[in-house]
């Protein structure tokens, strides 16, 4: 197991910049998830860590050793691919031992490692089978097993759950979390699914357009997103945004107003009259009522029922939609006019550049 | 099945049967008549051998009086060695051209594909000159070299297509596993190319085995003649020994048929695997 350091890493294809100035430190034993929309460069970053793609600039250190010019196999990494990438003409045992032959692992040791991995992943019964005879979940476990037997310094997962159906995805997710606990391995995990990111990660790296938007613990990202992108990306359904303007500043309080919501007072720490702001409130922090720091009203247009809660899509006075989560059975009916409120600590404020404005008294 | 469907299916089969008869007919005729006495070949060329006309005289003469076994082994050596080299170099070149981007790789690919468009026989005179200068005239090596050059472009083309279909992740996984590049090619890519290799093998073997042109211009002695050329000695300007000709031809057909039967299952997989995805 080892730590990983990435300094000023960049990747260009001709004129197109895929990654620019990526800096990231990953501690030994840490589970880091790279998350972002498709095309954000997260998979490229992972492939560069693996050594499958070369860097256009910058350095990668694994366990304190510069690995820029090392082949994938010399970096002490193991990668699990989205497509599993099992060798179709080898059985499960051979799939797991194939690579070990070339890295100087003695036959007896190979067998020991395979047995150990098979026990951990419940693959004992499947060792003589071929990939074509395995289900998707089993194939994924074999792919993970193939990574484990290499005893790598860093595990790299590239969207390992994308090809599994929903039920299997949840159980495999739990398995991966358990595996991390068991192996205490350093893991870099790429996904576009924020639920996977939130549930698995010690730390999440949110990426967008080839840059890192924010690095932080899952709940920090949720409660204190650094910018509009992270605020909109983490959380489902996405955070509601309201355009706003600072009307007046007096006695340390700033009065902020905008279309569709009731004017509200904010601590005026760094606000000036005329500043353009974006107010963000998560659907799950809105509740029906009239008493709250932030209040927004409108006509219910659509209600999505999930069981324990429902998502109401509400059209505001300025003809834009926002979403509110309503718990329990008492859901509003379409056409109903209602007001939703949120507590002051659940109101996120972003400046004109989209960066978070830290409100005093909030974590 | 409706009547219309049945009629259509019958029609299709009729066409296929006619084509098969057309293709198999001459071969059948050759094989059939090779087992008949000379008078019967001319008396009733279309009837199968019966008790009175059956004769092995053709085979007897061919095996006894000529160098047919030398020709046979020459053909086998030339064909099999050429095939092996075409497959080996073809697969390696296809792998290199599809997997690695290097300076001039596109140009090299184009250069190699010219061989598909330009028939190698156009260069016969130059080839003859070249091989004579190299001191290789009247050797099997000369034939093998020419056939490898003839077979390579198509095999590179077909194998490149197949290699491209092998998922990228598989090669990446092997690289992460620490498998050396040569081993990736030999132990991961090559086994997956089996259907394609069978296809290329058949397409390579048949024209080489049947070729008359290059043995004719590149070999001059009995010890280097191939079967197709050797048979020609039974065809005289005034007398043709039809028994021997037909017997020798029948024997010449046999190895190709055997190889085809062995490879055909793989071949069909190879021909159709790209079509249905």
Description:
The complex is a heterodimer of chains A (363) and B (277). Chain A contains eight helices and 20 strands. Chain A has helices spanning 42-50, 92-101, 107-121, 136-148, 166-183, 194-200, 218-223, 228-233; strands at 4-13, 16-26, 31-35, 57-62, 65-66, 77-80, 154-158, 186-191, 203-208, 211-216, 240-250, 253-258, 261-267, 276-281, 287-288, 294-305, 309-316, 321-327, 337-342, 348-350. In chain A, the strands form four sheets. Chain A has a six-stranded mixed sheet with strand order 6-7-8-3-9-10, sandwiched between helices. A five-stranded antiparallel sheet of chain A has the order 13-12-11-14-20. Chain A is elongated, with a radius of gyration of 24 Å. The model of chain A has no long low-confidence stretch (mean pLDDT 90). Chain B contains 13 helices and no strands. In chain B, 75% of the residues lie in helices and 0% in strands. The model of chain B has no long low-confidence stretch (mean pLDDT 85). The chains are: A alpha+beta (363), B mainly alpha (277). At the A-B interface, strand 6 of A face helix 8 and helix 9 of B.
- What is the name of the CATH topology of the largest domain in chain A? Rossmann fold
Count of separate DSSP helical elements of chain A: 8
Largest sheet report of chain A: 6 strands, mixed
According to CATH, the fold-level topology of chain B is MetI-like fold
Q: State the fourth-level CATH superfamily of chain B.
A: MetI-like
Structural class of chain B: mainly alpha
Task: Give the amount of beta strand of chain A, in percent.
Answer: 35-45%
Tell me the count of domains of chain A: 2
Radius of gyration of chain B: 23 Å
CATH superfamily of the largest domain in chain A: P-loop containing nucleotide triphosphate hydrolases
Shape of chain B: globular
- Mind summarizing the main beta sheet of chain B? none
Uncertain spans of chain B: none
């Amino acid at each position: 197991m080892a730590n990983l350091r990435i300094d000023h890493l960049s990747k260009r294809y001709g004129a197109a910049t895929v990654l620019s100035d990526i800096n990231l430190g990953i501690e030994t034993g840490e589970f880091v998830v790279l998350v972002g929309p498709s095309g954000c460069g997260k998979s490229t970053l992972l492939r560069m860590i693996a050594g499958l793609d070369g860097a256009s600039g910058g350095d990668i250190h694994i366990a304190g050793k510069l690995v820029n010019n090392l082949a994938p196999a010399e970096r002490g990494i193991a990668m699990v691919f989205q497509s599993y990438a099992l060798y179709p003409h080898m059985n499960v045992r051979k799939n797991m031992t194939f690579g070990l032959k070339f890295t100087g692992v003695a036959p007896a040791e190979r067998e020991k490692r395979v047995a150990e991995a098979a026990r951990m992943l419940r693959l004992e019964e499947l060792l003589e089978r071929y990939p074509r005879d395995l289900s998707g979940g089993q194939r994924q476990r074999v792919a993970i097993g193939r990574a484990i037997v290499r005893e790598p310094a860093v595990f790299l997962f590239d969207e390992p759950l994308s090809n599994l159906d929903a039920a299997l995805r949840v159980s495999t997710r739990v398995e991966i979390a358990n595996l991390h606990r068991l192996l205490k391995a350093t893991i870099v995990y790429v996904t576009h699914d924020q639920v996977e990111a939130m549930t698995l990660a010690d730390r999440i790296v949110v990426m967008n357009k080839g840059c890192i938007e924010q690095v932080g613990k899952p709940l920090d990202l949720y409660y204190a997103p650094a910018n509009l992108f992270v605020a909109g990306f983490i959380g489902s359904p996405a955070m509601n945004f309201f355009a706003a303007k600072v009307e007046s500043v007096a006695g340390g309080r700033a009065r902020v107003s905008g279309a569709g919501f009731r004017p509200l007072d904010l601590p005026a720490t760094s606000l000036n009259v005329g500043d353009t702001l974006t107010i963000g409130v998560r659907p799950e922090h809105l509740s029906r009522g009239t008493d709250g720091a932030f209040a927004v009203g409108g006509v219910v247009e659509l209600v999505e029922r999930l069981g324990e809660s429902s998502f109401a899509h509400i059209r505001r006075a300025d003809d834009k939609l926002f979403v509110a989560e309503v718990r329990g059975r008492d859901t509003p009916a379409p056409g109903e006019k209602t007001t939703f409120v949120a507590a002051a600590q659940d109101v996120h404020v972003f400046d004109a550049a989209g960066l978070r404005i830290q409100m005093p008294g909030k974590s | 099945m409706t009547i219309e469907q049945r009629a259509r299916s019958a029609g299709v089969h009729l066409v296929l049967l006619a084509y098969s008869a057309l293709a198999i007919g001459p071969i059948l005729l050759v094989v059939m008549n090779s087992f008949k006495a000379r008078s019967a070949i001319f008396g009733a060329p279309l009837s199968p051998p019966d008790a009175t006309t059956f004769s092995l005289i053709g085979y007897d003469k061919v095996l006894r009086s000529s160098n047919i076994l030398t020709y046979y082994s020459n053909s086998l050596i030339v064909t099999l060695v050429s095939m092996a080299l075409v497959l080996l170099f073809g697969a390696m070149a296809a792998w290199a051209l599809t997997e690695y981007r290097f300076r001039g790789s596109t140009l090299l690919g184009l250069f190699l594909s010219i061989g598909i468009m330009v028939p190698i026989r156009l260069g016969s005179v130059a080839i003859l000159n070249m091989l004579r200068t190299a001191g290789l005239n009247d050797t099997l090596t000369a034939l093998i070299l020419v056939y490898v050059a003839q077979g390579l472009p198509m095999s590179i083309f077909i194998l490149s297509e197949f290699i491209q279909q092998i998922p990228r992740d598989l090669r990446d996984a092997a690289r992460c596993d620490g498998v050396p590049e040569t081993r990736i090619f030999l132990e991961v890519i090559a086994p997956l190319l089996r259907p394609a290799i069978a296809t290329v093998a058949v397409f390579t073997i048949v024209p080489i085995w049947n070729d008359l042109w290059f043995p004719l211009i590149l070999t001059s002695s009995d010890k280097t003649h191939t079967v197709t050329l050797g048979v020609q000695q039974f065809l005289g300007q005034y007398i043709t020994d039809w028994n021997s000709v037909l017997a020798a031809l029948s024997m010449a057909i046999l190895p190709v048929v055997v190889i085809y039967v062995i490879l055909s299952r793989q071949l069909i997989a190879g021909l159709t695997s790209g079509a249905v995805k």
